[in-house]
Write a structure and sequence with these properties.
single chain; 31 residues; mainly alpha; 0% strand; elongated
């Protein structure tokens, strides 16, 4: 459903924002 997709994209964006606040090296290792 559209609501589920919205929830997924919101969590994904939050994760990306958290990662962006870290150093790039940590980001690649985190992945």
């Amino acid at each position: 459903s559209a609501v589920e997709e919205d929830e997924k994209s919101r969590k994904k964006r939050e994760k990306m924002e958290k990662r962006a606040s870290r150093p790039k090296l940590v980001r690649t290792r985190y992945r």
